[in-house]
Amino acid sequence: MPEHPDYEGFALSKLKEAGHRITMPRLAVVRVLARSERPLTPNGIHSEIAATGGKIDVVSVYRILSTLSSLGLVHHIGSVDAYSACQLDTGHGHGCEHLICTSCGRVEELPVADASSIAVTDQSDKAGFSVQAIRVEVLGTCPECQAEA
Q: Is residue 63 part of a domain?
């Protein structure tokens, strides 16, 4: 679950600040992401909303995720091809790493250490590459799953 104490309120505030209306479909997607401890696919988000009687099509879920992503409110977790609510409120484009449990699927987001971020940016600059964001995915086993093993 997002560590931000009020992810829903935070996300809705950021949407409003960016000039987006708070529609029922946007609210539904934000609420599903706020409750989830695991990354969700667009189809998974659609299913969660439909299970509670909500009406939204999958194309709208993709569009909403795109908007949330552009505002730094969700991250696409490539290794599992799903989306997770941004747990850090340090601003769009912040460097982050995702610790992904391969047993239960839970994701924890941590800020990338400044030294690591600087090193990656320096190496990228030397290669003539302009860095937009730094994201790292670490696959492993969470403490709870380790305890169960």
A: yes
C-alpha torsion 127→130→135→136, nearest 10: 0
Summarised one tens digit per residue, pLDDT across range 17-60 is: 999 999 999 999 999 999 998 999 999 999 999 999 999 999 99
Ranges 57-61, 64-68, 88-92, 145-149: which has the least confidence: 88-92
| 1 part of a folded domain | no
Residue 69 in domain: yes
In a domain, residue 2? The reply is no
Residue numbers of the domain that contains 86: 7-148
Cα 2 to chain centroid, rounded: 9
What CATH number has the domain bearing residue 132? Answer: 1.10.10.10
Mean pLDDT of 78-107: 80
Say how far apart CA 133 and CA 76 lie, in whole Å: 13
Query: 146 - beta bridge partners?
Result: none
- What does the block give as tokens for 84? 């997770």
Query: How many domains in the chain?
Result: 1
Sheet holding 107-111, edge to edge: 107-111, 96-101, 135-140
What is this structure's pTM? 0.80
Asked if 3 and 87 count as a contact pair (C-beta separation under 8 A), the reply is yes
